Amino acid sequence: MARMNRAAAFAALGASIALVVSGCSSSDDNSSDSSTADADKPVTMTLWTNATTGPGAAFFEDTVKSFDAANPNVTIKIQTIQNEDLDGKLQTALNSGDAPDIFLQRGGGKMAAMVEAGQLMDITDSISDETQAGVGEGSFKAESIDGKTYAMPVSVLPGGFFYSKDLYEKAGITQTPTTLDQLNEANTKLKASGVDAIALGGKDAWPAAHWYYWFALRECSEDTLNSTAKSLQFEDDCWTKAGDDLKAFKDTGAFNKGFLTTSAQQGAGSSAGLVANHKAGAELMGAWDPGVIASLTPDEKPLPDLGFYPFISVPGGQGDPKAIMGGVDGYSCSAKAPKKACTDFLNYLASADIQKAYYKAFNAPPVNKDAQSVVTEDYLKAVIAAFNDAPYVSQWLDTLYGQNVGNALNTAVVNLLADKGSVADIITAVNNASAKG
Amino acid sequence: MSDSSVNPLAVKDSQHDRAVVGAGSSPAPTPAARPRRRGVGWRARFEIAILSGPAVLLFVGFVIFPVCLAAYYGFFRWKGYGKPTDFVGLNNYKIILTDPEFHAALGHNVFIVIASLVLQGPIAIGFALLLNRPMRFRSLVRVLIFVPYVVSEVIVGTGFSLMLQSDGAFNGFLDKIGLGSLAHDWLSDPDIAIWTLMAIISWKYIGFAVILFMAALQNIPDELFEAAAIDGASYWQIQRNITLPLLGPTLRIWAFLSIIGSLQLFDLVYIVWGQYVAGTAGVSTMATYMVQYGRTAGNFGYGSAVAVVLFVISLIIALVYQRFVLRRDTEGALTDKAAR
Amino acid sequence: MTAATIVPPKASTRARATSKARGGAGPATYFVALLLVGVMLVPILYIVLGGFRTNAQITTDPAGFPSPWKLDNYIDVLTSSTFWREVVNSAIVALATSAVVVAAGLMVSFVLARYSFRGRGALYALFAAGLMFPVTVAITPLYIVVRDIGLMNHLGGVILPQIGFALPTTIIILVPFLRAIPAEIEEAASIDGAGKLGFFFRMVLPLSLPGVITTGILAFVGSWNSYLLPLFILNDEGSFTLPLGVQAFSSQYSVDTAKVLAFTSLSMLPALVFFSLFERRIVGGLQGAVKG
After folding, report:
1. Model ipTM?
2. pLDDT band, very low/low/confident/very high, at C1 (cuts 50, 70, 90)
3. Neighbours of A (≥3 Cβ pairs closer than 8 A)?
4. Which of A66, B115, C19, C38 lies at a C-alpha separation of 20 to 30 Å from B304?
């Protein structure tokens, strides 16, 4: 009989646990108050950012603190998510109706998908005049669809080569390359001097794909790039030419060994870490890279000999040799977020002082013109100059073409680099991807 | 004879007979098989409903229903929010069956199935035979070799991926003992990666096989060995004619579990090789393919179709296996109408 | 062999015969055992010891021992609320899952084993077919189902499906167990006026305890280690279970290899402790399952 009692007790315990669990609310504090009026009701919002460590994380903590102090009825909770996990989690959260109120927005096709699903707040009318004046129109364009703005830009992140001046000097490279041939020459010298020429974070796929995007930017005309965003089919020749360029470049052996399991930003073994620790000469990245590199140096301070030069020109391409590709990092409000509190925060983010703090924390170009004027690092100045010089700016292709096609493209490029796929396979993969979803 | 402290009354002997006699001949009549043909009265029906209710509800609700939903969603192109509206019929399946990435994943799965059986089976039997002898510390050894099985695949994946990096502990160790030239890119090299995966899988699951076989070996009554020894049989003859055949049912069940597990492999590959490059490294599985091109890409209709394909493949293999391999072992279990 | 009087072999002959059949435990056996145990444990040791080193140590000497031993990493993890929150989440999920799986599984196994009715075969086949539906197959629509009933980010959204998926294994183990209870006991119970339900509560429950423990433990370990289902359902860090936590921690702190190793090795601990407590039951239970 004792056994039966024990069994019954056990079952009762199990049942009560199940009851307790189902009674417990989730710890996600998402009490979004969607009434648009009444700014005095206490409001709690959640903020998702990919700034997980170092000064970047501190920036958000400080900014939220100061905003909460200035707006006593508002409390913002920060959740930091590793960059590689962010898009997936965000999509899940948005689709399940459990979205954070404020979150990092990549723009492009990814943003278009969210707009189509009605998941984003239209902030066009909530942008303050001050913000409008301080932030360039171009940056807003990147966050708008059909004239409506869906995110507040905070940083413009064009891409190019971030390199170690010391390593280049040691290898005997006197001038930064401007053509493909010069780049190949420089890489040979670097390898001879005992370091990897180019660090590549293949594990995350997109860093490898960036090489393809840049070659495509050089080979394809601006019109082709834009029309492909609508058709999601790689029909033009230029896509194949870009693939051939990449294959030829890979065959020069410039990338670090084991790039397939090298991540982009995680740890000293990542591609950013390789540059930070002087194990590789350069990497092709967006302008967030200085900040990432700074967190991976031995003393966790910005790399003193960091330099920048734009992507090289490629002979015979239809694209402009000075065209630049880059993303604009912004922050969106979810459709269900409390309108006044959320848009107030977005305007706050874009204000001059906060933008200055952003630049200092992330070592990346801010969008606010006043903030841009205080940039001191010459590599950032070079980035901003290249950006301003460019005849046109394209978004990263995986952002532009959306997560589905973007992922397929990225994976196919990695396959090419690992000798497991051909250039034609890239085209096929992209064309098939749109059929899958 | 057996280490188990468990001895449900009277159960052991009848089970015992079955295990011994079950290899090929019809089983001894099981005690509860006497037909109770009194018909199913109301009270019985009520009891059946109450007792089986919770399990059936949970199972149908969270297993059967989603699987049926998967079949339904598989006919659509769908981003996951709202209702699926873009009906594409069998197009998703067409894409899956012609996608070289899927073929690659399927191939990897087949390789893993076969390699697991071939690598783990004989080695586990060997170890089980060896460890089955009366030796000191046998229980301790048993516990320790089971440890990898208990640790989650996530932890195994995290630990091994740190250990097997180019500048990691394994290459460092090879260097220390002077075999530095053998250091390879265990994880990145597409030619080696799948063998690395097999090594990790074997490491994790061989202990389970050894324990299972040891348990089965202990069920073989000593009298058989004695009789054979008296007959003058040698050690190897005994193993071949008594031990291995009697190990048969267990072997077949283990193989079945191994096959199913290999077809469904996900966690390890996903943790070590990540979301994107499993295919490039030559270690993608149908499950990682499904997550990569389904959920990660936001293609919920396509992902569901892949799931259905995975299910159908598993089902076919399971049915074939049940019919041709396990049949004589399961006679006497409930699936057969003859058991009534 | 003649059918003459059969003389039971003497005890010593017996032992020698058995010994010959099974082989003696020579030094080769011990060596192999040591080798096997070593291979199994070395990676575990690597993870555990790694937590005691600094990143500098790991970079310069990847395969070495900690020198000096640093406790900071372990202490940091042990004092972090994240780690304990995840342990609690995992514990709640695993306990709830195993409790309900065992209870519901036992009840339905009893029905399948001791009642005779039309559709019994079909019901058993339904559950057995469930082995063919791993979580991987059902996860995409399951995520949508859980989302639509509002259990996203909720531990319940993980518990309920896990129960469903653990039922087939449980039932397959318990049914033969329950079948093997001799009819005489059931008849004795009915003579005593107990009826089937009384039989269930008074006799079957105690008798099935070994099977119950085995399946409970399997369900517990399975739930504790599960990754895919929580990955899809638990988006919010606050509700993470331990496997999710390990992966999140290792990507967030990937700079800090030593700390990741410390976190990983502490995450192993609950499962190992649990296993060592119940080792006899698990292995004994496997033995019983093997018979079935």
Report:
1. 0.81
2. very low
3. B, C
4. B115
